[in-house]
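Suppose you are handed only these lines of text.
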Amino acid sequence: MSSARRSSKLSSPTLPSFDKASALVAAYAAKLARRRPAAERVRLNQALGRVLAEPLRADTDQPLFPRSTRDGFACRVAEACSHRPLVVAGSTRAGQTPSGPLPCGAVWEIMTGAPVPTGADAVIMLEHVEDSDTRAGKSSSKSTRTIRLLPPRTIRKGENIVARAAQARKGEELLSVGASIAAAQIALAASCGITTLKVFLKPRVAILSTGDELVPIHATPGPSQIRNSSSAMLAAMVSAAGGNAWILPIARDTAKSLDAALARATSADLLLITGGVSAGKFDLVEPALIRAGARFHFTGVRIQPGKPLVFGEMPRRSTGLNQNGPRGDQNGAKRCFVFGLPGNPVSSAVTFLLFAAPIVAALAGRSARGTNGALGPLFALARLTKDVKTKTGLTRFLPAACTFAGPTPEVALVPWQGSGDLAAMARANCFLVVPEDADRLPAGSTVRILLS
Ligand code: AMP
Ligand code: MG
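From them, the structure of the protein bound to magnesium ion can be written out as follows.
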């Protein structure tokens, strides 16, 4: 494609809107999420960030016994609410079993986490009783110890007790296939005595940065060069989305260099190329993708930053290794998805979050999060603290800082020097979404933010 043609294409109002392009990507992600990637078994302490390939079930009722959630006294509600002194008939610590049922007219001293004796229907908190021992000092240990619930306090049935199986019944599914494993899921598995988990293999995501101006991060840039910061950034974003990042050497702005790099990169499940997709004379990525057999779903979106974004798929090169491909490679699919991300790092970050992350998550076997049933980016609402003036025609995603100190989240733009400004992006914690038809967002209005 000539750069003149590409240029006219990018200025065309026929480019898909943000909503249209994201719906298209979401449809691909949903289709991908229906297929099950190959799986492996990993130890629990290596399962962080992985995706469950078989359901996790409760090995016993949870809790296995009625459990006190407080230090205090197990009681019968009717007796406790009479406010009469009740004899302390026994004592149970966490890890002990009560020696018998709760006698009538008595209470049972109990510690947090200990089993509640049969007959008791609530636990009075230690802080809510008058204790004969405390009143009389330690010398009273010879006389019968009693406590009474201090009036006017009352207590309800079941208070401070978690009934047996209230959290889960034996055999019940606690986590489904597709659940992402974070600390809470690891704790849940540990509580069921599970030491290994069956998880999906991660998709292999190739990252190919292109550009004659780029040098590797360990090199000192010449007067007109810059370090390849985007590959490192995208590798981190790929990991967070559930993929295995594979950083390729920088490709130059020549057909030969791009063709050679693509020949390697298309063995991945997904390819992220940065740079070379705009309308300049040396933006050679799209023609190289076409030579490699790519079919495009869109070649530009009405957004800023990130307008030249390309999404497509191409024939996948076989690795020629074994049936399951190299370790960490899911294999199976005959196609390699490809995103051509605009070169400026903020543009790469925004377009990754909006469009590539859902595809990585779907390839990783993650099930939809939240209630909207989509693997898509996460948005939230916040109150804008300063006016934003802008132009209509593109949906904008501008680096912003959101604070959560007050009753509502508050957001303001971070000053920035355009989509190469990594320092501004590092000061931001979200992106303010400016709708396509807005030329101004007034201070005090409720706005959408894209969570990063
Ligand atoms: P391009 O989309 O290739 O026109 O790139 C736009 C600009 O983004 C370039 O002029 C560079 O300043 C910057 N850029 C491109 N690739 C990278 C990269 N991998 N890391 C950091 N900056 C980049
Ligand atoms: Mg370039």
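What can we learn from it? Confidence is low (pLDDT under 50) at residues 321-329. The chain is about 20% helix and 25% strand.
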